[in-house]
Amino acid sequence: MGEEASCDAVSLTEAGTNAKPVGKEVGREPAAAPAAAADPRLQGISDAIRVVPHFPKQGIMFNDITTLLLRPRVFKDAVDLFVERYRGMGIDAVAGIEARGFVFGPAIALAIGAKFIPLRKPRKLPGEVISEKYVLEYGTDCLEMRVGAIERSGERVLVIDDLVATGGTLCAAIRLLERAGADVVECACVIGLPKFKDLYKLNGKPVYVLVESRE
């Protein structure tokens, strides 16, 4: 939330009042709307996301997925939409970004027969780790991954988080995984900011979002 991009995407400010259905990839050439765009499950997901004004600080409209998690059917719909997209794509691992990527990532990984890799904040993982710093609006942050999580070069990895705003965190995750030899196939998020949908791919990787947050 509120991060500055450190990749080939334009920096944006966190915004939005409600979410609306999207079901599309970010940064792809204009094309016919995918079948998922008309999926009625997307509206239910959009409606279940609460927006909290001025949290965690003044001027930010926080997209809260905890209200979605309180609705088991809608939560399952969100997971199912990702599973339907990525099943059969030969994904070896799903990498979830702390903390809300941990909510969706393991369920998706289990359903598509992939392993789950937690990308954590500093000093959360025991043993040897590799780290990747990235720039936030006010300061820096860091993601860490356990050494050995990528077991062979070229493993196909999906990166999952709840929201993409400027893309800085996702870019750090991509760099971290690629340093370990992974092939990052795509990034997936439940929510995307509307201005973001027409920007470039993150470090050359497409971003898929289910619903769009309205400004």
From TrEMBL:
Positions in coiled-coil regions: none
UniProt keyword annotation of Lipoprotein present: no
Keyword Calcium: no
Record keywords: Cytoplasm, Glycosyltransferase, Purine salvage, Transferase
GO molecular function: adenine phosphoribosyltransferase activity
Major location (coarse): cytoplasm
Gene3D superfamilies given in the database record: 3.40.50.2020
InterPro entries: Ade_phspho_trans, Adenine_PRTase, PRTase-like, PRTase_dom
GO biological process, one term: purine ribonucleoside salvage
Occurrences of domain Phosphoribosyltransferase (ranges): 71-191
Name of one Pfam family that matches: Pribosyltran
Enzyme class name: transferase
Chemical reaction(s) catalysed: AMP + diphosphate = 5-phospho-alpha-D-ribose 1-diphosphate + adenine
EC identifiers of the protein: 2.4.2.7
Cellular component aspect of the GO annotation: cytoplasm
Subunit field text: Homodimer.
Listed NCBIfam families: apt, PRK02304.1-3, PRK02304.1-5
Protein name as annotated: adenine phosphoribosyltransferase
Organism encoding this protein: Zea mays
Gene: LOC100275070
